[in-house]
């Protein structure tokens, strides 16, 4: 025990003495720890001069730097990571990083950048991370440094322990992440990423992009993740993703897309997740997902879809989750899910469905979560669906109500035997009340059955 304590004390003392003031004019306010230079939280207005040329990690975050000279980092050829988080930068010199060919991580989060020079990253072919997002606490934009198995920490203060991978919190699967999150970028040069051939993830979320050049990602064949959520995109070039054959995740959530080119995803056979939540899509091409044979999740929630092509998901046999929440669907094609034998989760809530046929789910035996809430479903039109529900042994999460006698009831609690109506009553919509239940023809009022008596009593 004494030996262990002694070792810990010695190591602790070594760590404390290892961080020393850097030598040289201006740079002396910073701390030097081997090849790491820490100039964070010092109220600096300019980049210090005399940064050691052996520096591999440079921290300049949480200062008041508003401009950077083009030659500020010209001698730092060994630089691997630079952190300029939370400064006051509104623009960057085009040649700022041109000498830093070993750069892997650039953090520019929390600045006021509204545009970027086309050649800004043209010399940085080894780049793995470019971080331009603004709020490190906002969901979907955190970058974590994995310095131990299963342990993730954020920030420059952990660069000292950084060893292996960068993990993007949304998917926790990317080795190379490029993030442009929550800035004010309104447009991008067509060749901005043309030199970054090793990129695996690009996050352009929470900007104000209204259009994208068709060739923007054409050089990035290793891309696995593209995040374009929360922009102002109203349309997309058909060839935008045509070179990205390794793409697995595409997020287009929170834009103004009203339609999509049929061939938009035709080259992306490795796609696993497509997120189109919260757009303005009113219809979809029948073959939109026909090439995406590895798709596992499709999110089409919060659009204005009123109908779906029967064959929309016919090629997606690996699908596990489909989200159609908050659209305007009044009916579903009987064969819509016929090929999706691995489907586990379906969200159909907040549409205008009045009935759901069990035939739609005929080939599905693995459903674990089904939500049909907030639809004007009529209980007595759901008999086969309710019978199907009772047979689903894997369905652990179900939500849905229907209307019977002007009252809402949980679908699973409804007794379909209450819906026995003489055949002569069933003459189409003319014999239904406004709430969808059957009207009582005048001739049946003369000799009321128990069912008729219950109906009359409830209408008084």
Automatic annotation (TrEMBL):
Signal sequence region: 1-19
Cited InterPro entries: Leu-rich_rpt (IPR001611), Leu-rich_rpt_typical-subtyp (IPR003591), LRFN (IPR050467), LRR_dom_sf (IPR032675)
Keywords of the record: Leucine-rich repeat, Repeat, Signal
Protein's UniProt keywords contain Signal: yes
Highest rank taxon of the organism: Eukaryota
Entry keyword Nucleus: no
Name the record gives this protein: Uncharacterized protein
Organism expressing this protein natively: Mytilus coruscus (Sea mussel)
The organism's taxonomic lineage, starting at the top: Eukaryota, Metazoa, Spiralia, Lophotrochozoa, Mollusca
